[in-house]
Amino acid sequence: MRRQHHAPEDGFTLTELLVAITILGIIIVAIGAMITTSFRTSTAVSAELQGSRGPKVVSRYWVPDVEQAGVVTPGVGGCGTERTPIVTMNSRVFPSAFDPDADPGDTAGENHTVTWSVVRNGQRLQLVRDVCAGAATPDRNVIVSDLTNATGNPAVEDGARPQYTITVTVPDRSRSDKTYTFSVTGMSQVASTTSAP
Predict the structure, then answer these.
(1) CB within 8 A of 48, min separation 6: which ones?
(2) 131 in helix, strand or coil?
(3) CB neighbour class for 32 (10 Å; exposed up to 12, middle 13-18, buried from 19)
(4) Residue of 72, 77, 173 whose CA lies nearest to 119
(5) DSSP structure class, residue 79
(6) What's the DSSP call for residue 102?
(7) Do 147 and 61 meet the contact criterion of CB atoms below 8 Å apart?
């Protein structure tokens, strides 16, 4: 009698297949949870960075503006339009020795007006800085693009040099009911600075 040879059976048993599918499901759920957590963390970190960017940008412009201001007028506009003014600072800018077009005999300098104000842009409030030099068209910089509130505080005398503070509140995009509030103070370097009412 001849023996019949059967080919070995290849493949998985039903039990092995169910175990593999279960393990694969657990791995996919874990990876999905990690991806979801990383997206949430990324959004929160982005909102935190946006909030921390505000003080840096405001101080970058506010401090030099205050340092060179000869006249500071809170609540009054002087440069730019369509805004709620916080403060206007007037100063004299003198020609630089490095400017080839500068007139070395110019001792009066050029009138330099800077107005900090709040502007509505669609649904957002923005903190803007308008600069008027001479009779030129205002040059506008958006300092904070999403604003809740901004106020300019009156001078705080520190000896002969007054200090001026701007307080800014920005929304926290990661938590809709929260805000960031920060203040930046600059000290005038012009001994004769006057603060108009």
Answers:
(1) 174
(2) strand
(3) exposed
(4) 77
(5) S
(6) -
(7) no
pLDDT of residue 14: 85
Q: Write the burial class of residue 146 (CB in 10 Å: 0-12 exposed, 13-18 middle, 19+ buried).
A: middle
CA distances in angstroms from 152 to 53, 69, 164, listed in the order given: 19, 15, 8
Whether the predicted model's global pTM rises above the 0.70 cut: no
158-176 per-position pLDDT tens digit: 666 788 888 888 877 666 6
Cα-based distances in Å from 25 to 13, 20, 112:
19, 9, 67
Cβ-contact 127, 152 below 8 angstroms: no
Collapsing DSSP to helix, strand or coil, 15 comes out as helix
Secondary structure of residue 151 in the 3-state scheme: strand
Q: Rounded to 5 degrees, what are φ and ψ at 50?
A: -60, -40
- Mean pLDDT confidence for 107-132: 82
